[in-house]
Structures are given as structure tokens and as C-alpha cells.
Amino acid sequence: MKKLPFYIVDVFAEEKYAGNQLAVFRSADTLSGIEMQLIAKEMNFSETTFIISERKRKGGYDVRIFTPGEEVPFAGHPTLGTAHIIRNEIIKRAADKIVLNLKAGQIPVSFSVDDGNCWMVQNEPEFGKRFQPNKIAQVLGISSGDIDERFPAEEVSTGLPRIIVPLKKLDDLKRADTDRIKYFDLIKDTRAKSILIFCPEVRDKQNNISVRVFGDYYGIHEDPATGSGNGCLAGYLVKHRYFGSSVIDIRSEQGHEIGRPSLLFLRAGDMDGKINVSVGGKAITIARGEFI
């Protein structure tokens, strides 16, 4: 294997050593899928990305995304972090937009001059299976009364399905944790393999919602910042008029329970039955190096 340049990026981070860590590899066109999976397992971040071509194909850059456990068709923080590296390390100019060719399709990432945020437009959300509160509560180690039954526990996907679960209070969110046996029993017959829980109580009064995401199936127990999951959540909030409106522009906090505080910006709107979703945040390059 030839030497592979790589970068470590903190995504959805307001400062270094926060947000969600990402490894981005360049010159990955000679790697097999098996080799990519081994490297992702070695890095052991939530996701690792591989830039297959540093020239555009059909208007975008070919990229593959791996968790420590398997390849995934789409994920949020890898999309933003990889676009950040392409912009700053490959084309080396202040491009307004970078398009990634992922297994889930083409995902555009735009760059805001005003606030330094990267923004991705996600696929239109699809809504699937619903779950009984008592069954979900058992998986999460909480009582069914901690779940806000005004809204459903439901599968949602903007490219990677998640089970969305509304909780009432921040204390409920902090106490939750997955029982591995019950978790794997739940997901054996579902498209979604990870669980996103949220509540309207927040630590920082500037924010609007608190989030946690559990995904042992992918080799990571808890994710510090989940762009794809928050995109699913944005679509869910609009569909069910969680904030009493067909349009949202909110701030989502995540990662505090595992010492990686993260901030994500969610925008979504229901336009004549079609829900548009965008997720934004900052990306910070932390390190660069070589695999030998």
C-alpha cells in the first residue's frame, strides 16, 4: 500500500477538541473496500472517509464513508468534514460549494462567509415504522412516562435511517442508555440501526434542543455529533409541527454526556408536502499525517 495522506477534523465544533472527530484520507483510489474498512477500524472514530478521486466526476468528488463496523451510504459530519478538506487542502480556494458523490447520491455542501459554517442539503426525509413507547423505554433504560407521547417514536431517513424518540426532560435524556441485548433485539427487524433521543430542555439558553445518538450496531456506542441524525430530526420536527410551525431554524446541542460538546444548526421547511432539510456547523482541521 502506498503512503496515504490523511487529516483529522473536528466537525460541528465551536473550538478544537470538541464536536465529532473525523479522519479523511486522500489518494484512496488504490484501496479496496476491505482495506478501507480495516483503516476505519484502526482509526476508531465514528466515521472515516476516503476521497477516491481528487478531480470532479459528474460535478462532484467520489467519496466513501466507513464506520468501524461497516460502510454507510451517507453520514452528516463526514460529509461536511470531507468537503472542508477538499476545499482547503485539494482545490485550495474559497469555493462557495463542494459536491460529494456518495452512495446515497450527490450531496452539496455550501460555505458561509458570514459565520464560517458549512451547510449540507440532505435528501427529502422518508418516514417509516413507529414504535410503542414502552418497548423503546425498555431499550433506553427509562420509563415510558419519560417519553413525550404527543409525538411518535418513528423511523426517519434522509439517507441513513434513525429511530427518533421524543423525551420530556433533560434529566431523562441524561439518564438514558441502551441495554445492548434489548437494543439489538429491537433493530434486528428495522431499517434504522441507531436511536436518536431528544428533548426541548437545553444547557445553553441560546440553543433549542438537546440530542443524543446511540449506535452500537456501527461500532460506536454514542456519537458526539450526528449530522445525518439531526437532519432526520429536522424533518421529523417539521412533519409533526413540534415547534408549532412548518418551518424551523434552530440550534441543536449534542455530545455533552461524552465530553465532546457539539453544536449543529438545523433548517427545514414543509413546502406543499415536500420537506427540505439543511444541516450546518463548523469544521476545524486538527492534524495531518501519513499512513505508511
Sheet/helix structural class: alpha+beta
Rg of Cα set: 18 Å
Q: Can you give the helix content as a percent range?
A: 10-25%
Low-confidence segments:
none
Strand content: 35-45%
Elements, N to C (H/E) = EEHEEEHEEEEHEEHHEEEHEEEE
Number of domains: 2
Taken from the alpha-carbon principal axes, the silhouette is: globular
Distance between the termini: 7 Å
By CATH reckoning, the class of the largest domain would read Alpha Beta
What is the total tally of β strands?
Answer: 18
Q: Can you put this structure into words, describing what you see?
A:
The chain has 292 residues and is α+β, with helices and mostly antiparallel strands. It folds into two domains: 129 residues, Roll (Diaminopimelate Epimerase, Chain A, domain 1), CATH 3.10.310; 155 residues, Diaminopimelate Epimerase, Chain A, domain 1. 21% of the residues lie in helices and 38% in strands. The protein is built from six helices and 18 strands. The chain has an 18-stranded mixed β-sheet that branches. β4 and β5 form a beta hairpin. The longest helix is centred in the first third of the chain and has 15 residues. It starts with a strand and ends with a strand. The model has no long low-confidence stretch (mean pLDDT 95).
